[in-house]
Amino acid sequence: MPGNVPKHQTASEIDATAADWAARADRGLTPAEDAELDAWLGEDPRRAGAYARARAVSAYSERAAALGPAYDPRRFEGRKKIVTRREWLMGGGAVAAGLGAAAWVGLSMTGRGQAHLTHVGEMKVVPLDDGSVISLNTHSHIRVAYSHNRRAIHLDDGEALFDVVKDAARPFVVLAGETEITAVGTSFVVRRLAGLPVQVLVREGIVDVRQTAQPVATTLRLPAMNRAEASDSGPIRRLAVAPTEVERAMAWREGRIAFEGDTLRQAAAEFARYSDTRIVIEDPQIARETVTGLFQANDPVGFSKAVAVSFGLRTQIREKQVRLYR
């Protein structure tokens, strides 16, 4: 709870504290609480984005509750909420949170049978009408297909975090190509990029991963702190992950990219998901060099300059392109 919060928190702890602050803000903050919130936000750059997301979800839930059980988000057209200066700067409507081009573009109301997408460098919160919430990463596309007995989400491209409300009568299913991920109540990430295996990372709870492209469909039960990779050509691979790896995998929610021994070629491909500026590496030896660290997702030029210093390289910067060479 606010007031007794350690300065160093995990992403999950930050989300929980942000939700507490959002609830208190809905009731109104005293001047002392307002100062305490500002202090908490200033201690960790990840907290601004978490608080803005929590405020967005809180606003959605508040409106839904006020309208009663017959509320249908597809038909709702409410008045714009007056936001504070803090919320405007952090993005009560368009959540920039200091992320520059890699920015949260705000809250998207949804119901059954709707599609949602983000462009390069954008991120979005999508609350669902059962209380579950989807956080869409850059350049991603989903389709919502809820029915009376199943909550289905089609991930056509990109990456999303799913925070699922429990409903045993209606399983929550994410369909990513030939990979099917089923959960009742949990928090997990699914990543689907062209030419790569579908990746599933479980933060909390348990999910079942099923590969429907195989002659005999196989299902793998995946608990928290585990990751799975599923491709059309082979069995599902399961890998245990450390909490620090989960933190790195979730860095995109704060507008950052985390590398841990990735090659520069892989890093260049990852930056291309967040920015129109391309990192060009023509020398295969340079492309195989590895990098570790946390970088701003919307700053491929800054990343390239840092890499150049580390590896004794040179940079050539042109419009929408930065070249690394010796």
From TrEMBL:
Instruction: Show the InterPro entries listed in the entry.
Output: FecR (IPR006860), Ferrdict_sens_TM (IPR012373)
Q: Which domain of life is it from?
A: Bacteria
Q: Membrane-spanning regions, if any?
A: 88-107
Please list the residue ranges annotated as the FecR protein domain.
117-207
Question: Keyword annotations for this protein?
Answer: Membrane, Transmembrane, Transmembrane helix
Tell me which Pfam families the record gives.
FecR
GO molecular function list: sigma factor antagonist activity
- Which protein is depicted? FecR family protein
What is the protein's species of origin?
Asticcacaulis biprosthecium C19
